[in-house]
Amino acid sequence: MRLRRAIGGAAVPMVDPFLLLDDFKSDDPADYAAGFPTHPHRGVETVTYMIEGAMEHRDSVGNRGRLGPGAAQWMTAGRGILHSEMPEQERGLMWGLQLWVNLPAAHKMVRPRYQDIAPAAIPEIAREKARVRLVAGTAWGAEGPVRGIDVGPTMLDVAIERGGTLDVAIGAEDSAFVYVLDGALRVGPDRREVRERELAVLGAGEVCRLACDATVGRAMVVAARAIGEPVARRGPFVMNTEEELGRAYEDHRTGRLVEGG
User: Which of 4, 93, 171, 217 could form a disulfide with 52 if both were Cys (CB 3.0 to 4.6 A apart)?
Assistant: First the structure.
Protein backbone atom coordinates (compact mmCIF):
# COMPACT_ATOMS: atom_id res chain seq x y z
CA MET A 1 0.00 0.00 0.00
CA ARG A 2 1.22 3.47 -0.85
CA LEU A 3 0.97 5.57 2.33
CA ARG A 4 2.26 8.53 4.29
CA ARG A 5 3.68 7.88 7.77
CA ALA A 6 3.01 10.64 10.31
CA ILE A 7 4.19 8.75 13.43
CA GLY A 8 6.79 6.00 13.43
CA GLY A 9 9.40 7.63 11.19
CA ALA A 10 12.58 9.60 11.85
CA ALA A 11 10.80 12.91 12.50
CA VAL A 12 8.33 11.54 15.09
CA PRO A 13 9.38 8.02 16.20
CA MET A 14 6.49 7.70 18.66
CA VAL A 15 4.07 9.64 20.85
CA ASP A 16 3.81 7.25 23.79
CA PRO A 17 1.72 5.05 23.65
CA PHE A 18 1.23 5.67 19.91
CA LEU A 19 3.85 3.88 17.83
CA LEU A 20 2.71 4.46 14.26
CA LEU A 21 0.19 6.48 12.28
CA ASP A 22 -0.18 5.73 8.57
CA ASP A 23 -2.44 7.60 6.16
CA PHE A 24 -3.28 5.73 2.95
CA LYS A 25 -5.17 7.79 0.38
CA SER A 26 -5.30 7.21 -3.36
CA ASP A 27 -7.76 6.80 -6.22
CA ASP A 28 -5.17 4.84 -8.23
CA PRO A 29 -5.77 1.10 -7.77
CA ALA A 30 -2.06 0.47 -8.38
CA ASP A 31 -1.40 2.20 -5.05
CA TYR A 32 -3.69 0.00 -2.97
CA ALA A 33 -4.44 -3.24 -4.85
CA ALA A 34 -1.76 -5.19 -2.94
CA GLY A 35 -3.42 -4.37 0.39
CA PHE A 36 -1.89 -5.70 3.60
CA PRO A 37 -1.53 -9.49 3.08
CA THR A 38 -1.33 -11.91 6.01
CA HIS A 39 1.28 -10.90 8.57
CA PRO A 40 1.86 -11.37 12.33
CA HIS A 41 1.73 -9.07 15.35
CA ARG A 42 2.61 -9.39 19.03
CA GLY A 43 2.59 -6.89 21.89
CA VAL A 44 0.64 -4.16 20.11
CA GLU A 45 -2.86 -3.01 19.17
CA THR A 46 -3.69 -1.97 15.61
CA VAL A 47 -6.52 0.42 14.83
CA THR A 48 -7.93 0.97 11.34
CA TYR A 49 -10.32 3.83 10.56
CA MET A 50 -11.84 4.00 7.09
CA ILE A 51 -12.87 7.29 5.51
CA GLU A 52 -13.58 6.18 1.93
CA GLY A 53 -13.49 2.79 0.23
CA ALA A 54 -13.66 -0.65 1.76
CA MET A 55 -11.33 -3.30 3.16
CA GLU A 56 -11.81 -6.76 4.64
CA HIS A 57 -10.15 -7.99 7.83
CA ARG A 58 -9.42 -11.68 8.47
CA ASP A 59 -7.33 -13.15 11.27
CA SER A 60 -6.06 -16.40 12.75
CA VAL A 61 -8.56 -16.26 15.62
CA GLY A 62 -11.45 -16.51 13.18
CA ASN A 63 -12.54 -12.88 13.13
CA ARG A 64 -13.73 -11.36 9.89
CA GLY A 65 -14.98 -7.84 9.27
CA ARG A 66 -15.76 -5.54 6.35
CA LEU A 67 -14.68 -1.95 6.86
CA GLY A 68 -16.61 0.55 4.79
CA PRO A 69 -16.64 4.35 5.00
CA GLY A 70 -16.83 5.45 8.62
CA ALA A 71 -16.09 2.01 10.08
CA ALA A 72 -13.32 1.21 12.54
CA GLN A 73 -11.60 -1.82 14.01
CA TRP A 74 -9.47 -2.15 17.13
CA MET A 75 -7.39 -5.32 17.19
CA THR A 76 -5.44 -6.32 20.30
CA ALA A 77 -2.70 -8.66 19.05
CA GLY A 78 -1.57 -9.63 22.55
CA ARG A 79 0.53 -12.81 22.57
CA GLY A 80 0.18 -13.25 18.83
CA ILE A 81 -2.11 -13.06 15.83
CA LEU A 82 -1.94 -13.34 12.05
CA HIS A 83 -4.20 -11.02 10.09
CA SER A 84 -4.76 -9.43 6.71
CA GLU A 85 -6.51 -6.28 5.51
CA MET A 86 -7.30 -6.46 1.82
CA PRO A 87 -9.15 -4.06 -0.52
CA GLU A 88 -12.79 -4.79 -1.21
CA GLN A 89 -12.73 -2.64 -4.36
CA GLU A 90 -10.97 -2.53 -7.71
CA ARG A 91 -11.42 1.17 -8.43
CA GLY A 92 -12.28 4.44 -6.72
CA LEU A 93 -10.84 6.28 -3.74
CA MET A 94 -9.29 4.26 -0.92
CA TRP A 95 -8.66 6.39 2.17
CA GLY A 96 -8.03 5.32 5.71
CA LEU A 97 -5.75 5.52 8.72
CA GLN A 98 -3.89 2.87 10.66
CA LEU A 99 -2.72 3.57 14.20
CA TRP A 100 -0.55 1.31 16.37
CA VAL A 101 -1.03 1.54 20.14
CA ASN A 102 1.50 0.01 22.50
CA LEU A 103 0.51 -2.51 25.15
CA PRO A 104 2.00 -2.30 28.67
CA ALA A 105 4.38 -5.11 29.62
CA ALA A 106 1.81 -6.71 31.92
CA HIS A 107 -0.61 -7.18 29.02
CA LYS A 108 1.61 -7.87 26.02
CA MET A 109 0.84 -11.59 26.19
CA VAL A 110 -2.95 -11.41 26.68
CA ARG A 111 -5.25 -13.37 24.39
CA PRO A 112 -5.96 -11.59 21.08
CA ARG A 113 -9.14 -9.56 20.84
CA TYR A 114 -10.97 -7.90 17.95
CA GLN A 115 -13.53 -5.10 18.03
CA ASP A 116 -15.38 -4.54 14.74
CA ILE A 117 -17.16 -1.18 14.83
CA ALA A 118 -19.83 -0.37 12.26
CA PRO A 119 -20.36 3.28 11.27
CA ALA A 120 -23.79 3.35 12.92
CA ALA A 121 -22.23 2.37 16.27
CA ILE A 122 -20.08 5.53 16.38
CA PRO A 123 -21.91 8.45 18.07
CA GLU A 124 -22.08 11.69 16.11
CA ILE A 125 -22.12 14.85 18.20
CA ALA A 126 -23.26 18.19 16.82
CA ARG A 127 -21.64 21.32 18.23
CA GLU A 128 -21.88 24.90 17.00
CA LYS A 129 -20.20 24.90 13.56
CA ALA A 130 -18.66 21.51 14.32
CA ARG A 131 -19.40 17.82 13.99
CA VAL A 132 -17.64 15.08 15.98
CA ARG A 133 -17.60 11.29 15.52
CA LEU A 134 -16.61 9.64 18.81
CA VAL A 135 -14.74 6.39 18.12
CA ALA A 136 -13.27 5.95 21.61
CA GLY A 137 -13.46 7.71 24.96
CA THR A 138 -16.08 10.05 26.39
CA ALA A 139 -17.00 13.55 25.26
CA TRP A 140 -19.98 15.88 25.69
CA GLY A 141 -21.90 13.22 27.60
CA ALA A 142 -21.44 10.49 24.97
CA GLU A 143 -19.25 7.38 25.00
CA GLY A 144 -17.50 5.77 22.08
CA PRO A 145 -17.97 2.08 21.21
CA VAL A 146 -14.36 0.96 21.82
CA ARG A 147 -14.15 -0.78 25.21
CA GLY A 148 -11.57 -2.25 27.57
CA ILE A 149 -8.36 -0.65 26.26
CA ASP A 150 -5.54 -0.35 28.84
CA VAL A 151 -4.42 3.17 27.95
CA GLY A 152 -7.92 4.73 28.06
CA PRO A 153 -7.89 6.21 24.56
CA THR A 154 -9.86 9.11 23.15
CA MET A 155 -10.30 9.09 19.37
CA LEU A 156 -12.34 11.79 17.63
CA ASP A 157 -13.04 12.58 13.99
CA VAL A 158 -13.68 16.33 14.09
CA ALA A 159 -14.98 18.60 11.31
CA ILE A 160 -15.24 22.36 11.89
CA GLU A 161 -16.79 24.96 9.60
CA ARG A 162 -15.22 28.33 8.79
CA GLY A 163 -15.34 30.58 11.83
CA GLY A 164 -15.98 27.73 14.24
CA THR A 165 -14.03 26.71 17.33
CA LEU A 166 -14.10 23.52 19.39
CA ASP A 167 -12.58 22.81 22.80
CA VAL A 168 -11.64 19.14 23.19
CA ALA A 169 -11.01 17.83 26.71
CA ILE A 170 -7.71 15.97 27.09
CA GLY A 171 -6.63 14.02 30.18
CA ALA A 172 -3.99 15.92 32.14
CA GLU A 173 -1.64 12.91 31.99
CA ASP A 174 -2.42 11.95 28.38
CA SER A 175 -0.24 12.14 25.32
CA ALA A 176 -2.21 13.61 22.43
CA PHE A 177 -1.96 14.64 18.81
CA VAL A 178 -4.02 16.25 16.05
CA TYR A 179 -3.74 14.93 12.49
CA VAL A 180 -5.43 17.08 9.84
CA LEU A 181 -7.32 15.13 7.19
CA ASP A 182 -8.73 17.96 5.11
CA GLY A 183 -8.34 21.73 4.91
CA ALA A 184 -6.57 23.37 7.84
CA LEU A 185 -7.07 24.05 11.54
CA ARG A 186 -5.52 26.39 14.07
CA VAL A 187 -4.44 24.41 17.10
CA GLY A 188 -3.81 25.43 20.69
CA PRO A 189 -3.55 28.81 22.44
CA ASP A 190 -1.04 30.13 19.88
CA ARG A 191 -3.42 29.19 17.01
CA ARG A 192 -0.70 27.47 15.05
CA GLU A 193 -1.93 26.49 11.60
CA VAL A 194 -1.84 22.76 10.84
CA ARG A 195 -2.63 21.81 7.25
CA GLU A 196 -3.85 18.71 5.47
CA ARG A 197 -1.73 15.61 6.25
CA GLU A 198 0.26 17.47 8.93
CA LEU A 199 0.61 16.32 12.55
CA ALA A 200 0.58 18.45 15.70
CA VAL A 201 1.82 16.81 18.90
CA LEU A 202 0.17 18.50 21.86
CA GLY A 203 1.88 19.65 25.03
CA ALA A 204 0.56 19.19 28.55
CA GLY A 205 -2.89 20.56 29.23
CA GLU A 206 -6.50 19.58 29.77
CA VAL A 207 -8.11 21.30 26.77
CA CYS A 208 -7.15 21.46 23.10
CA ARG A 209 -8.76 24.38 21.26
CA LEU A 210 -9.31 23.90 17.54
CA ALA A 211 -10.35 26.75 15.24
CA CYS A 212 -11.09 26.92 11.52
CA ASP A 213 -10.31 29.89 9.29
CA ALA A 214 -10.50 27.84 6.09
CA THR A 215 -13.65 26.65 4.32
CA VAL A 216 -13.50 23.51 6.43
CA GLY A 217 -11.07 21.78 8.73
CA ARG A 218 -11.24 18.07 9.48
CA ALA A 219 -8.88 16.19 11.79
CA MET A 220 -8.40 13.19 14.01
CA VAL A 221 -7.81 14.11 17.64
CA VAL A 222 -6.27 11.18 19.53
CA ALA A 223 -5.13 10.91 23.16
CA ALA A 224 -4.23 8.19 25.68
CA ARG A 225 -2.24 7.60 28.86
CA ALA A 226 1.50 7.27 28.25
CA ILE A 227 2.95 3.90 29.32
CA GLY A 228 6.49 5.07 30.07
CA GLU A 229 8.18 1.67 29.57
CA PRO A 230 11.13 0.65 27.39
CA VAL A 231 10.13 -0.09 23.80
CA ALA A 232 11.83 -2.70 21.60
CA ARG A 233 10.27 -2.81 18.15
CA ARG A 234 11.12 -4.45 14.88
CA GLY A 235 8.80 -5.18 12.00
CA PRO A 236 5.35 -6.23 13.27
CA PHE A 237 6.42 -6.94 16.88
CA VAL A 238 6.60 -4.48 19.78
CA MET A 239 8.04 -5.72 23.08
CA ASN A 240 10.07 -4.29 25.98
CA THR A 241 13.44 -5.96 25.36
CA GLU A 242 15.49 -7.27 22.44
CA GLU A 243 15.35 -10.72 24.01
CA GLU A 244 11.54 -10.64 23.90
CA LEU A 245 11.68 -9.51 20.29
CA GLY A 246 13.94 -12.41 19.41
CA ARG A 247 11.51 -14.80 21.10
CA ALA A 248 8.61 -13.36 19.09
CA TYR A 249 10.45 -13.96 15.82
CA GLU A 250 11.38 -17.49 16.90
CA ASP A 251 7.80 -18.22 17.95
CA HIS A 252 6.57 -17.01 14.57
CA ARG A 253 9.16 -19.10 12.71
CA THR A 254 8.21 -22.25 14.63
CA GLY A 255 4.44 -21.70 14.57
CA ARG A 256 4.12 -20.97 18.31
CA LEU A 257 3.15 -17.31 17.92
CA VAL A 258 -0.58 -17.83 17.52
CA GLU A 259 -2.92 -19.64 19.88
CA GLY A 260 -2.84 -23.37 19.20
CA GLY A 261 0.57 -23.09 17.55
Answer: 93
